[in-house]
Amino acid sequence: MISVVLRAKNEAFWMDRCLTALRNQRVPGIDVVLVDNESTDDTVAIADAHGVTIRRISREDFSYGRALNIGIDAARHDVVALLSSHCVPIDELWADYLLAHLGPDGDPLVCGVYGRQEPMPDTSAIDRRDLWTTFRDERVRQRQDYFFHNANSGIRKTIWRDEPFDEVIRGVEDREWGKRMIRLGHEIVYEPHLRVYHQHGIHQGRDEGRAKRVAEVIDYIRTSAP
């Protein structure tokens, strides 16, 4: 079975779409945990109506890695999907592909899998370009490249217990975790059939402030111990 961890702050516009897509998966009984960061809209109410387990993190305590760790700790199953609340699985096979790689019949060397992100009709040209050029059509098994993307990914909780996400760095916690996993001898799989819609893409247009923060963290990861 599968657990899904959602991080959210004011995602009411997308929450019902995301949770409905999860409910429509062929894999039954998906356990969903929402980690909410002081939403002021109907995010929590919508999640509660869907029977989601809700955990909260304050603005003062928030980091991307800490929010994930709180959600994974509450997850019931070993296969844990990490999904942005504004990402919507495209079809009912999304969970099947997670299980194929991370379930009991999957390769134990694989610590995580991440999937394709596709633009919405109203996604900006810049974000469409970035999504289409980043997420390709070919499955890739990564033994050196530690790129990993938690907007649409899955990990094994048994591995996470010893190697949780970094709670200090200001984002790109997925790539930092991927580097640690590769260093420990694990492998990461990019699965193009693990598909979600993602309206704003992975670089958020031309947000210079976000770009500066992310670049600083990536520089830290690149220059940290191999």
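the 2nd protein, sequnce then structure:
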Amino acid sequence: MDRTVVSTSYWHRHEDGRLQCDVCPRHCRLREGQRGLCYVRQHLDGEIRLVSYGRSSGFCVDPIEKKPLNHFYPGSSVLSFGTAGCNLACKFCQNWDMSKSREMDTLADTAMPDRLAEVAVELACRSIAFTYNDPIIFLEYALDVAAACREQNVRTVAVTAGYVDPLPRAAFFTAMDAANVDLKAFTERFYHRICGGHLAPVLETLEFIKQETDTWLELTTLLIPGENDSDAELDAMTGWVVEHLGPDVPMHFTAFHPDWKMRDVASTPAETLQRARRIARGNGVHFAYTGNVHDSTGGSTWCPGCDALLIERDWYQLGYWGLDGRGCCKACGTTVPGRFDAAPGQFGPRRMPVRISGPSSRQS
């Protein structure tokens, strides 16, 4: 029996014999043998199955700040991996070789959940991240990995667009320790024209995570010149975040570089990121960050109570640490929201590809 093909739960049958996948708002209706837009959920033998269980496009040990998560065990290392396919069609995708892949040969490495948790322990990784493509589409695999990780005291992190239906949303995010959700823009036009999706389900996901789970939440917006970087849109987005999620949800504004189907668009100027950060802070966002650029001020964490430097960052390199052992500002005692150890991790900015095979992991 092929262990990489497993039955799934979120689907129902139509009168015409097609099966509707109910994992995400695309609601692909599939005849026998057809796959959804995500490519990894397929109508086989009268049910929808996940055909990429336990298979990965590659593994790498990263700094947690690369996800990006700045308030989730800073300085720690995370074992990152993804699979193939995606349930959105973003024209600017910067992992398109994996997320847009239609070749199962992309999935070159195999690891079952228990083995992944063991490898994370072997490599001294504080957490495992489902990233590179959206883990919503390989939900069953991700949930089994999360369960195996809990037994090994390893945390799990979802890097996701949050484009998911309510029932799988609840199952997925209640099992995650942290999530970074791509809030790609704040207009329906952008989501429909550039991503092939809709904004409303993503906003519903954000409210669910914040209000109904204990999952640590951070947001990322890749700012694309002329598409989602206007003052008006940034004002509306950051105002909504403060009103609906609260001022303590960190927001990361990151730089676009030409890729996939948007190679004719210029890279994001650093000033655009800094402008977004100013707008966010002006609307009451306590922790607004710039990313994909060298900007120590925009990449560092500052106290919302006294504006003291709390965590100095230059790209993924940590410097000064201004938190006490309780996760509070040393200068004024303000509690800083997040998940912190008494001292920062020491992994640093390096990136370590690894190969998972046989009884032990090895660096590639």
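Confidence is low (pLDDT under 50) at residues 358-364. The longest strand covers residues 216-223.
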